[in-house]
TrEMBL record:
Alphabetical list of Pfam families matching this protein: SHIPPO-rpt
Upper lineage: Eukaryota, Metazoa, Spiralia, Lophotrochozoa, Platyhelminthes
InterPro entries from the UniProt entry: CIMAP, SHIPPO-rpt
N-terminal signal peptide: none
Annotated GO CC locations: cytoskeleton
UniProt organism field: Schistosoma haematobium
Protein name: Outer dense fiber protein 3, variant 2
Length: 250
């Protein structure tokens, strides 16, 4: 027996697996909200522009910023320019000394020979007597032993160092402090045995099934079983699709 579905009188939403044509994406061709599937001609449309703001006097920089007519694309036009400099200052008359400003009678010691003359200068303030070191402040380098600035060869010098704390007589290991290498390391080792610990029973206190809880006679995995049939459920051809709020917003 075959089940015949009744023909619906109108469209059923469950018959469609998609949300439907009402959720079509907007077209990217033509003017906004244009439907390319439409066969109707669209009439002419006119739009009014926006009102421009009034021109204020502060909007333009003014004619002072107009380009100069004498400046071309390649630079200035090359016409000669003349300029007037300011008046120079008057030169001052050089005041030369007259004949009466000279005293030739005082030039005897510059022209004629003169006897030697000596003068005593004043004491210098920078140098003091106390700043000069005396003879006992200097130390002459010794000539015995090792010298640093002497050019003569010094005699050999010997020094005795102190007793070292390491490697003393009491700290030296004896013959019994060394271990003999085990023969099992570089020769064939002998067999070794180990004794394990005593195994303890598990401490789990849960109830576990015993041998009598199993039914091996009901198992037919090793033998051929008879065919088995089952009745399934009736599936509807109007399978609904889950539509979320995000699908409705598109």
């Amino acid at each position: 027996m075959v089940y015949n579905y009744t023909r619906p009188r109108g469209p059923i939403a469950a018959m469609y697996s998609s949300p439907g044509p009402c959720y079509a994406l907007p077209s990217l061709v033509g003017f906004p909200n244009h439907d390319p599937r439409s066969n109707h001609l669209r009439g002419a449309q006119w739009s009014f522009g926006i009102r421009h703001e009034k021109f204020n006097s502060e909007c333009s920089p003014g004619p002072c910023y107009y380009p100069d007519s004498k400046i071309l694309r390649d630079g200035k036009d090359g016409t000669p320019h003349y300029s007037l400099y300011s008046r120079q200052k008057e030169a001052m008359i050089f005041s030369n000394p007259g004949p009466g400003a000279y005293t030739p009678e005082n030039s005897d010691h510059f022209v004629f020979s003169k006897a030697p003359a000596y003068s005593l200068s004043s004491r210098n303030k920078e140098f003091k007597v106390d700043d000069v070191p005396g003879p006992n402040r200097y130390n002459i380098d010794p000539m015995l032993g090792k010298t640093v600035r002497s050019q003569k060869q010094s005699a050999p010098a010997y020094s005795l160092s102190s007793r070292t704390k390491l490697f003393g007589a009491a700290e030296t290991p004896g013959a019994g402090a060394y271990n003999i290498t085990d023969l099992n390391l570089y020769r064939e080792a002998a067999p070794k045995y180990s004794v394990t610990g005593r195994n303890q029973l598990p401490t789990d206190t849960t109830r576990k099934p015993g041998p009598g809880a199993y039914y091996p006679e009901r198992v037919h995995m090793n033998s051929q079983s008879a065919p088995q049939y089952s009745f399934g459920i009736r599936h509807s051809q109007y399978k609904g699709e889950f539509i979320t709020d995000a699908d409705l917003d598109q």
